[in-house]
Specification:
about 190 residues; mainly beta; 8 strands
Length: about 190
């Protein structure tokens, strides 16, 4: 810094940089649905895995961005169209029938059967301290620039896990805001 002189030392010196990185897998999710035929009186039940499907076939493949409208393989989940009347062929019960009057049990999907989208986020800051000799010898000007989600990487929220809703399996929002920049100037004397 001495080669640049006093002015170069003021401009190039006194900088510090810091950051926080978050890298995490998605949260375990439980797929549920509204079941008004449950014999136990609980209307929000775990969903039923469709015949021939396994837990490993429940998730679709590809990047999260490519799966915004189909995070789950909906063919592996028994679903009822609530706008249609019950029909054993075209709109069957989504849960196993266990009583002669059509009462159903809980679905066979486990709690936390599939993970939601993970997160990978960078927050950074750059701080510049400059000593000034007015109004006292210990005066200091601090400039701070902060970058939240610095690389503007989308962080998607969990998809809708209720099989009774028309948005089942769709990701409808984000979990982290887009890039946010914040600047501050502080004078200490």
């Amino acid at each position: 810094m001495q080669a640049w002189g006093a002015f170069g030392s003021k401009v190039l010196g006194g900088w510090s940089v810091s950051g926080v990185t978050v890298a995490q897998t998605g949260q375990p999710m439980t797929i549920t649905g509204t079941n008004s035929f449950n014999v136990f009186g609980i209307s929000e039940d775990r969903a039923q895995l469709a015949p021939g499907c396994t837990n490993s076939q429940l998730g679709t493949s590809g990047s999260v961005k490519s799966r915004l409208n189909n995070y789950f393989n909906t063919n592996c989940v028994n679903r009822v169209d609530p706008s249609q009347p019950f029909n054993a062929i075209t709109n069957p019960y989504a849960w196993p029938v266990i009583s002669s009057d059509g009462g159903t049990a809980f679905g066979n999907m486990g709690v936390g059967i599939i993970d939601g989208p993970g997160q990978f986020n960078f927050d950074m800051s750059a701080i510049k301290h400059t000593k000034v000799h007015w109004p006292s010898e210990v005066s200091d000007v601090e400039f701070r620039a902060e970058f939240f989600n610095a690389f503007n990487h989308p962080q998607f929220a969990n998809p809708d896990t209720n099989t009774s809703e028309s948005t089942f399996g769709q990701i409808l929002g984000t979990a982290v805001s887009p890039r946010v920049l914040q600047f501050a100037l502080k004078f200490s004397f």
